[in-house]
Specification:
Chain lengths: 240, 114
């Protein structure tokens, strides 16, 4: 928006690829005029969609909770719905999450990403007799889950991790490892030893080089690299 | 083999890093303090029993540390199993050869002296 309140065109350059018709991907430039209520990048994308309905991207909650609209924005992974239009360098270059197979335009195949997530058993395991009411935690035990449970599995971190780019089939990746630590650190979970044994592998955990791109780019402000460090320390304690 | 995988390898890499750090600090202290370093001083160090053992330990730590680091890079970038095996084998061979060479050189002082 200009100083006198007039709306100005924004140039957005978007990665386009339709496997049914295109031999290879191309970048397509769009000019979009944001309206008064358009504050976030997703608003501009929705406006573009009314002009060119072949443009494909995922979105759902539009408030940073569902994690659907993760994409590479000007070279950095982020959620379109949390990225303000103001301050974005033009042309805004939008690409699909790096390292993930592209299904169409900005939509990527997340099968492998979720396979890693399921493999770390993302649920409480406790075979002890259930108490009459819920399994209680002290406030301190509950606090240990802060910074872990908030992950929305948008894949911004894993798709910005060079180690995950090189070995996406074997390295669990920052998102999966953050989720794994969420259950390792849960006082109600009794499968800590099995969880650690699964991760004690040259690929699953130890591909991480503490590059810390994951922490740098997480749109929820979480720190997968810190969680990974805690898993390594838990493994040291477990083995000694 | 488990010694070189997963958590053990990670611990070994850190343990050897501590050894190398101590050697570096000791070497820096030696350079800064004491009389000027000369060939005679290095020679005296290398031919003393303690010095010789320390030098072999240093190179063994360096080789182990290097092995884990280089292996990690190979695992990242070289995906065909045959190429990976060949490269890892070559690297292991070179590292082992370096340590054996250093150990033999150090031992030679004592066998000729004794």
């Amino acid at each position: 928006m200009s100083a006198d309140g007039e709306e100005e065109d924004m140039r957005i350059s978007i990665y386009r690829f339709n496997p049914e018709t295109d031999a290879k991907p191309r970048m397509q430039d769009y000019d979009v005029t944001p309206e008064a209520g358009d504050k976030k990048l997703l608003d501009a994308l929705m406006r573009l969609k009314t002009v060119d309905d072949s443009l494909s991207f995922r979105r759902s909650c539009r408030e940073g909770v569902c994690g659907s609209d993760a994409m590479n924005i000007n070279g950095r992974n982020g959620l379109a719905c949390l990225t303000s239009l103001a301050g974005l360098k033009e042309p805004v270059v939008l690409r699909p999450l790096p390292g993930f197979p592209v299904i169409r335009d900005l939509i990527v195949d997340m099968t492998q990403f979720f396979a890693h997530y399921h493999a770390i058993k993302p649920y409480l395991i406790n075979d002890e007799l259930a108490p009459e009411h819920e399994r209680l935690q002290t406030p301190q035990e509950r606090d240990r889950l802060n910074g872990l449970y908030e992950c929305i599995l948008c894949a911004c971190c894993s798709a910005f991790c060079p180690s995950y780019w090189w070995n996406p089939d074997k390295f669990v990746g920052p998102a999966g490892l953050l989720q794994a630590y969420r259950f390792i650190s849960d006082s109600r979970d009794t499968a800590t030893a099995e969880r650690l044994a699964y991760l004690d592998d040259v690929y699953r955990l130890y591909r991480c080089r503490t590059i810390m791109n994951c922490t740098e780019v997480c749109p929820k402000g979480l720190s997968p690299s810190h969680a990974i460090e805690r898993i390594r320390l838990a493994l040291v304690r477990e083995s000694s | 083999m488990r010694l070189f995988l997963g958590q053990r390898a990670w611990m070994l890499q850190r343990a050897t890093a501590v050894v190398l750090l101590i050697f570096l600090a000791a070497a820096a202290a030696m350079l800064l303090a004491g009389p000027r370093l000369s060939y005679e001083r290095w020679h005296a160090l290398a031919t003393s029993p303690h010095g010789a053992v320390l030098i072999v330990v240093l190179f063994a730590a360096l080789a182990l540390h290097g092995w884990i680091g280089i292996r990690d890079i190979v695992l990242d970038y070289i995906h065909p199993p045959a190429g990976r095996l060949l490269l890892l084998g070559l690297i292991a061979l070179v590292l082992i050869a370096i340590v054996i060479r250093v150990a033999l050189t150090m031992a030679a002082h004592f066998t000729t002296a004794g």
